[in-house]
Amino acid sequence: MHGIGNDFIILDGIRQAIKDPSELARRLCDRHFGIGGDGLILAEPSDAAHARMRVFNSDGSEAEMCGNGIRCLGKFLYEGGLCQELPMRLETGAGILTLTMAVDGGQVSSVTVDMGAPCFDPARIPVSAPTNRVTLEAGGHSLRFFCVSMGNPHAVTFDLYPDGEAFSRLGALLERHSAFPARANIEFCRLNADGGADVRVWERGDGPTLACGTGACAVLAAAASQGLLPRRALIRLPGGVLDIRWEADGHIYMTGPAETVFTGRL
Hints:
Elements (H helix, E strand, L loop, with lengths): L1 E2 L2 E7 L8 H8 L10 E6 L6 E7 L4 E2 L3 H13 L8 E5 L2 E10 L2 E8 L18 E6 L2 E9 L3 E5 L6 H12 L9 E7 L5 E7 L3 E3 L3 H13 L6 E6 L2 E7 L5 E5 L10
Parallel strand pairs: 2-3, 4-6, 11-12, 13-15
Antiparallel strand pairs: 1-2, 3-4, 4-5, 6-7, 7-8, 8-17, 9-10, 10-11, 12-13, 13-14, 15-16, 16-17
């Protein structure tokens, strides 16, 4: 499945036990010798919600949450008959999140996720600095970052919008910068005249991805906090567009599509 190009292998861990998902992610996400994907997502039983979501990056590391992935998982559970109660509540490493869906003829066309409130506390993001705003030197550039957690760590900059080799080189350096003790997702952003933003994401544990849902939320939180964007905006990523809004309740809501590419048996 994919959410605007951010693609995942989804496995049913509710009706069967999945052994060693970390090693399975490394093997199956390999685009040459496996199925190929940015990550592996398991649907598991939950005592606190309708199901539990576990996310493993292509390098085998486990992530707290994934915004595009949770939309895919919601569609997988609903259309597969594993959970058709709406709103749907899914347990993640970032807490329990609530999903609403646009459904037509039993098919899910779009999913809205209550992503919770952004966290700007440097100790909880985490970032090794007294505030969540840091200036970092990397690859000959001095870049200002606004750091935020959406259940996983993000560092957002509006100072540079690199592509090609420069993007890959800077992303790899910054992900593992000493300022980020748990590593970080890196968002390079460019503001648009129409009140939105273009974003390129270097994803922790995956590298360049076509989209990042939590990253889009982090970008809006960073931009709106600095008066660069309104509290609702379209965030454009290489794979497509997400509608992100930061409501008066303090929560950020993400709306976007989820698509099934193919199904199979391993």
